[in-house]
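User: Second chain of the day. Same drill as before.
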Amino acid sequence: MKTMKISIALAALIASGVAVAGDSPAPTNAYLYIGWPNDGEVIRAESFRVWFGLRKMGVAPAGVEKSMTGHHHLLVDAPLPPMDEEIPASKNYVHFGKGQTETRLSLPPGKHTLQLLMGDYNHVPHNPPVMSRKITITVK
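Assistant: Same format as last time:
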């Protein structure tokens, strides 16, 4: 009976659009953000610095299994990936598996979106997922 109730609750969460995430727990008050650029920023160079901020959680390299830590993934002009799978690696899903907290990004002129998503030691989002809000920038 208990298993059936859990299955029904999980089905309701999936149907409601709530993300099902990986096995690594994260603090419910963890806060991930893009420190710069700001939402709406007009950047007058094709190469620029992006820095990441994280509160109430630690940063550890990929492959290091340590409670309440993870590493950054920068989503560039991309939607959120499935929350219960490894975050893909591509030019749109940039991994910072050494624990980096900033990068230089080169983008062509135009509007672009940026969003951060924390991944655990295996690149899977935490439970609950720890992500920044999506920002839009314009490169001139």
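The helical segments are 2-15.

User: Great, on to the next one.
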